[in-house]
Amino acid sequence: MARKYSSTKNCPINNRSVTAVLDVLARCAQSAVLSDNFQIEIACSSMRELDECCKEYDVDLDEFLSAYLQFVKDPDDKKRHYSFFHRTEMEFLTGKYLANKSMSSVVQEKGYEKLQMYYGVLPFLVGQLGATGKLDKYAPVIIELLQCMQVSTDNFNFYSKLVIESTTSNNHGSGCRRPFCSQLCDLISHKEWHLEAETVLSGLHLLLHCACLDLDLLVIDLQMSCDPDKAECLRYLKNNLSKLQGAFGHGKHCRKLDLCLYIQNHYEKKDAGVSDDYLSLVLGWTNLVKFTGAIGTEGIKHLSKFVYIKHLDLRMSKSDVFNDFVKKCFAECKKLKQLQLILDFPTKTEPSSLVPLDCVPLKVHTDVRLRFDRIARKNLPWALCVIDAICPKSLGGFDRVTFHSTNFNREKDADLIIEALKDKVFMKVIVTSHASSRGQFNIIQKDKCPFEFEFDDR
Fold first, then answer.
1. CB 439 within 8 A of CB 458
2. DSSP classification of residue 256
3. Can you give the three-state secondary structure of 145-164, one letter per residue?
4. Separation between Cα atoms, residue 271 and residue 344, nearest integer Å
5. Where are the alpha helices (DSSP H) in 225-350?
6. Cα dihedral 387, 390, 392, 394 sign
7. Which one is predicted more confidently, 421 or 434?
8. What is the DSSP secondary structure assignment for residue 41, as one 8-state letter?
9. First to last CA, the chain
10. Phi, psi (deg, nearest 5) at residue 442
11. CA distances (Å), 455 to each of 86, 104, 268, 369, 398, in order?
12. How much is the pTM?
C-alpha cells in the first residue's frame, strides 16, 4: 500500500512514514466498520488524527488521502470531506489493523449482533495473520469467533475464502494440515455435502486444501438451467476436478468418496452436450453411486469402471452407445437399483440392431424406466418396436414408459399403446401430448391393461 501512495504521487517510498499513517487510517476504518452507526465517510475526529499523524511523519495529507480515499464535495460546507471508496476497502483495512494491533479486541467481542460485523472482515483478517505468520497462533480465536457468529456448516463460499486467504501457495498440500485448516474443518459438516452451481467450486476447493475432511457423501447437483460447459460460475469446474483427481486419485490406500453427480442440463436438453469429461475426472478418487447426464462412447468406458452405481439417469443419442452400455456397463453394475433412459436415437435406427436389456442377469432387481422425448405420432410404431426389441423380459418388463409427444391422439393411439405394451410394462405408461384443441388429463382404464395409463393432452 506504501507503493500505491508512492506511484500515485510520484514520490520516493518512505515505508515507515506511510505505514504509520496507514495504521491510523486502518484504525479509522475499524472504528467505522465495527460501530453501530456505520458510515463510509471519514469522521471529523478521524480527520484530525490523520492530520496530526501526517505532520509527525512529514507526509502530505491531501496527497496521501487522495491515494486511498475519494473527495466528497459539499457546496454548503467549505471543509473538505473524504470517504472510503467502498466497504470492502474498509474491511480490508480493518483486517490489517486487527491482525497487527488489536487481536485482543476480537477475543473480547461478545454479542451475536455485534459479531455479524466481522463477516466481511474475517477473510482479510485471516489473510493478514497468514502473511505475518500469526495465523496458527490465533487460530483458536478465529474458530471461536466463527462459532459465536453461528456461521452455517454448509457456507462453502465463506469457508473457502478463509482457506484461500490462509495460504500463499496454490499447491494442494500447502496448509492442508496446518492447525487453522484442521480446526476449521471441525466446523464443517462431515456427513454430506450438497453442492450446487453457486457453491461447487468453493466446496471442491475446500476438499482440495483440507486434508482432514472425511466426508460420507458428496452430492454435486447442477440443475437444468445451468449449462456446465458455458456457465460463467463453472468456468473452472473441470480444472478443480482435475486437481482433486491429481491429489487423491492415485493413492492405493485412500478411501474413495461416495459421489452423486447430477448434470441435469445434459440429461434433459437435446444436443446440450455429453457428460463424458466429467465422468473421466471423478475416476480414481470417488465411488460414483448416482449419476445423471448424457453419455457418449468415451463415457461408456469411464462408466464401466464404477461398479457401485445404484441409480443411473442417462440420455443416449446413438444406438451404438446404447449397445455398448448394455454390454459393458449394465452387465457390470451388480448393485444397480434404478435405470432411467432417455432414448434420443434417430428414427431411422433399426430396432433389430439394438441389444436387449436382459442380456445379463443382475444380482439385484433393477427398475428400468424408458422415455422418448418430442416423438411425433408418425414415429409411434417405431418407438413401440424399439421397446419390444430392448425389453428386459427377465425383469418382467419396464417399470414405466413415458412418451413426451408433439401430437399423439387420445382416441386413436391409446389402444395401440396398450396393446403393444401390455406384456412389457407392469407399473405405468405416461403420455404427455400437445393437443390441437383443449384436451384433458386422466387415467385411462382398459380391460386387461396391467399398468396404470396416464394420458395428458391439455
1. yes
2. P
3. HHHHHCCCCCCHHHHHHHHH
4. 10
5. 237-248, 264-268, 276-281, 297-303, 319-324
6. positive
7. 421
8. B
9. 66
10. -160, 170
11. 58, 70, 21, 17, 18
12. 0.85
